[in-house]
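Sequence in, structure out.
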Amino acid sequence: MTFRIASYNLHKCVGTDGIRDPERVLSVINALSADVVALQEVDRRMGQRPSALPPGLIERETDFRLADLPRTGPESLGWHGQAVLVRKGTHVLEASGFELPGLEPRGALRLRIEPESGVPFVLVAAHLGLRRADRRAQWSRIAREMIAAASPALAIGDFNEWSARHGFETLSGFDVHAPGPSFPARAPIGRLDRLVTGPGLRVLRMGVFDSVLARRASDHLPIWADLSAQPALPPPG
């Protein structure tokens, strides 16, 4: 039994052509054929941080629903600019947000998800900081959440890490996967969008979704991965 998870930095729905167009962003999301999609930069950064992606449009144009999660402000769609979409039929058993350490305000989302056919897993969705020192501290915090999970756990998002070797030193016992270059969308060279898996999860396939529309809709291309999960083993004794 497999499920597909994806991650997409929407750049506040402003494309590489400078046009804000939420509908084409949703067209890209629909094309991912994912069960769960972690989104970054769903809100504008100024003032009350109003949503850049209208919730009503999600309801009308997709087969997804917005996971019930904390929000930064009364007009926000996301928590620190992040939200998670789940396909109808996929169940969210628990959902919460937590703060991340660092110079700039950052946060992550933690969900326990049960796919329509599959083993429940814990998802941490994150958009990490611009400074590597902050990211290392943020990974330490995220790793604690993943280790404490009673189910197989993974993290996915825009990790803002250009290096293939550095920045993930605190993730002992986890596997870091880079599906491919996803930034900048017009001519991608940076593998900023990645996923991290713990024991009990296996990546079967993964990739970067690249199309003419995706290269216009945002400054990032979305990533996706097909995973299989095994139930967590009970502790000995």
